[in-house]
Structure formats: structure tokens, C-alpha cells
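Narrative progress, year one. The postdoctoral researcher (J.K.) led the effort to move from monomer predictions toward full complexes, under supervision of the PI. The following entry was the first complex the group processed end to end, covering 475 residues in total.
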Amino acid sequence: MSNPDNLKYTSSHEWVKTEADGTISIGITQHAQELLGDMVFVETPAVGRKLKAKEECTVVESVKAAADVYAPVNGEVIAVNSDLDSSPEAINEDPYAAWMFKMKPDNAADVDALLDADAYQAVVDSEAH
Amino acid sequence: MGAKMVDFGGWDMPVNYGSQIEEHHQVRNDVGMFDVCHMRVVDVKGADVRVFLRYLLANNVDKLTLPGKALYSTMLLENGGVIDDLIVYFMSEDWFRIVVNAGTADKDIAWMKKQAALHAPQLDVSDRPELAMIAVQGPNARAKVWEALPGSQELTEKLIPFSAVEMGTMFIARTGYTGEDGFEIMIPAKAAPFFWVTLAENGVKPIGLGARDTLRLEAGMNLYGQDMDESVNPLESGLAWTVDLTSPRDFIGKTALLANPPVNKLAGLVLLDRGVLRGHQKVHTAHGIGEITSGSFSPTLEKSIALARLPKEVAIGDTVQVEIRDKMLNAQVVKYPFARNGKGLI
């Protein structure tokens, strides 16, 4: 599965989708879910929490490991995807649909400055050995 | 096979070929095969092997009376610490076969040779690294092996659990590390790839180390290096059943075990809150602090489970608190195994 062109990415393997109202949805990439394997638990941040870019705010646990998910930019958590409580496997099945939380970014320009699909693919390729 | 490889004690091992949970269910409900070349075979041959092993191992090889019969045991240091856990097969009075963990094989063999030199210099202790091992496990494992290996059915149909038989250059044992029926098959390494492919052609799916770990955890089987090691004794590791303290025989570590009654025990945990139990998490009990030795998600129970070393006063049914990141989550102390023979037991 290739990385959708309409999304932004981080080098820590989050994808970021800008919604029509300027808020953003965040999930983890195909590459990240493949590395982690079968997801069994997601712990999302509290709505209203103010986050700094690169701050740990969500934990995803697969059968084999726990991993942190980081805020892509500065902003406030405005929603979390509680469907993942009962079906964390949605992250494996369709990682680009399984958003974990939504934020209102402090600056829209911060989102524009994130990686595009090609730049993210270069990060993934450079991590492969 | 699209395997995800990982370094496991110096071995490149497949963690999973596809979904780890699917692989797990595949073994509980049908059949799967494991590349377990990370186990090592050691043959001990010569006069009076039994007398030597009576002293070397914590379990009593006198329980082995029928040729081919196997016994699970620990091998202890003088201070009672666990050097390794192993399976010993009685083949004849001058040949016992021992299977140890590859990660500890070199120190195990050095220890065996040192003890043999001191107490039974007539014995030959030899490492058999040219033997590979493939485990075929699951309710349909034996039938699949019989299909893939002509002549094996006649030889192994009546093989009782925890015993083995030779078939040419192969050694077929009705043992495993999953809580399911099946075989562990030792085969010359040169012939192993062909056998693997033959099993695959007969519909046996390869299973990675990830599912191997959740299967053995559900089955309540210890993993060396996690649930016990040289710093703890078997009586605090859920292995009292493998230590024979009743017979008058002496064995290495016995004096230390008798002098130091256990203050901890290994217990099962089932997480009541949402999350995943993992090794090294702290467990708060009414009787003091304990620690998880192995934890994961149980695909059979669809809950998180763990083995934990807890103060011995903690009882089955108690609720304890596990420290996970910045939270205290509730878990219940249970009797394990958690699942075997295709079924959850909790």
C-alpha cells in the first residue's frame, strides 16, 4: 500500500489529514502498523489537552510491543476515536482510515511544513536495512 | 514466506509470517510448524549415565524407565539458580539425550562437561549442532506429519505424550511448547529444508516466534531468561513440580533449595482493566511488591495475561494492581495454564 498523496507525515510514522474546517486527524502509517503487527489496545489523550509538537500523547499496543504516538504539531486535542477501544484491529486493516485523535493546530503553517508522501517514503527507505 | 525477521539471542528468527494472532489460532485449532533450530541437542553417552544425571539435574531421572521417555527438568547452580531448563530423553542406560536452549547452550555444555569430568569422567558429553529441529503443533499435527513422512505413522501412532522414537537419522518426540498435541522433530540440518517444504506442501503453515511466545504463555510454560534465570531458584519460578526434593538422592543445588525456603511464587494474572501486561511491570499486592516476568495479549481469552513473581502469601482470586506507565491497573491472580488443547481455561 502506498502512502496517500493527500496526507502529511512525520518521521515518527504518524499521518496527518487536514479536514475542511482546518482541524487535523492523526493516525499511524501503513509502515508503522506493519512493524507493530496485530493491534490490541489504544490509549488516546484527553480531549482538551494542549500538546506540543513531538509530545507523546497516545499509546498503541500490539501483541508484541507498545509504541508511543506523537503530536505532529502544537495544538489542542478536540476529539478521540473511541471506536478503536473495541476494534483496535481497524488500524491493521485500514491504517489511513483509523484516525486516533483530532487536533486544532495552533498554526496551519506547521501542518504544511510536515513531510509529503514522497519525503516520508524516503524516511521509510532510509530506515530499511 | 514474507517473514518478519528479528535477532533472537544471535539467531535471525521469524517473529511472524503474517498476522501473529491468526498464527496463534492456527496452532490452537489446526496445525502449524515452527523452525526451532534455536534449540540444541546434547548427547550424554557411556556407562552409568543415569547415576550422573541423578546428580546433575533437579528432577529425578529415575522417573524414566521406558526407553524414549522424556522428563522436563532444570539444571541448577550450587546456589539453586537456574542454569537452564531442558528436556532429557532416556534412550538406553548408556545414552540419554538432552535438549537445551541455544541461547544458553554453550554455558550449559561447559557446565555438563565440567561436572562430568569431576563425577563421571567415563562419559562423553557431545553437542549435536548438526541436528536441526522443527516443531509441528496443533490438534491435527500428528496426522499432518504422518502424511508428510511416509512410515512415521506406524512408528509414532502409539507414542505416548512426552516420549520419543528414532526413525533413521530423525528423532521424533511427542513434545512441544504450545499446550497442543504434536511433535518436535530433530533432523540432520542438511535435510531440514526439504522436510519443511514437504510439510508446507501438505498444508502445514509456518508459525513465527511471536505466536510461539503467546502459545507457550497461555499454556503456562516458562521461558528461560524471562521467567527464570541464574538469579532465581525453581521453587520461586513455578517449577517446584520439576524439582524432586523427596528422594534421598543428592543433586546440585539441593542443599541451597532446602536452606532457603521460597518467599515468592509464580502466579498467573489476568488484566481486568484495559491495557497490556508486559515483562518487568511492577505488581502491587497486599503482601508486597512483585514483578511480571512474561506478559502479553492472549488471543484465546482475548484478554491480557501474565506470569508474575509475587509474594507467596498472595492467593488465587486476589486483585492486585499493576503499574503500567503512570497508571495502576487491576489484575486478578489466577491459577494457570490459561489455555491448552484449543480451549481457554480461565
